[in-house]
Amino acid sequence: MYRLLAGLFARQPDRTALDRVAALNGDDGSQLGRALGTLGRVAATSDPAVVDDEFHDLFIGVGRGELMPYGSYYLTGFVYEKPLARLREEMARLGIARAESLREPEDNIASLCEMMAGLIEGDFGAPADLATQRKFFDAHIGPWAGQFFADLEAAKSARFYMPVGTVGRIFMEIEATAFEMAA
Asked: What is this structure's pTM?
């Protein structure tokens, strides 16, 4: 799930990416399954050029997009604030290097989802234990990502990204609950 979300926010999805998302058929009766099924159906009928425009309107814009997908912004109202500094300290401690190609702050939702996936799957060494995963989630994702995804669901420019917001919001709720249950 983290890789799926990271990929949808790292760059505008092209036809190949939309086709992969269109293949999602998670409609197993669960809330997340229904949201994944909706996302798959929307992706199947989405035009990559229209999704590209939507991505620009939502996250880039002229001056800025409709939404600011950064932890610092959601937590403080400004980009490049203390939450980003804390994330950079945590990245150094965990051996996570900033991608050379990254042109934006590391606390963007795509990078954070990619880092969380990497911790789980062992991209930065051995897979992180559950306590490390929870600490990272609680410090850098949990306090704001659910609200970001809810805002995305309601964004006036969101068509393709509206069900992405639903998937993300539900997944963040599941993750938070799972971490609480594991404690």
From this structure: 0.95
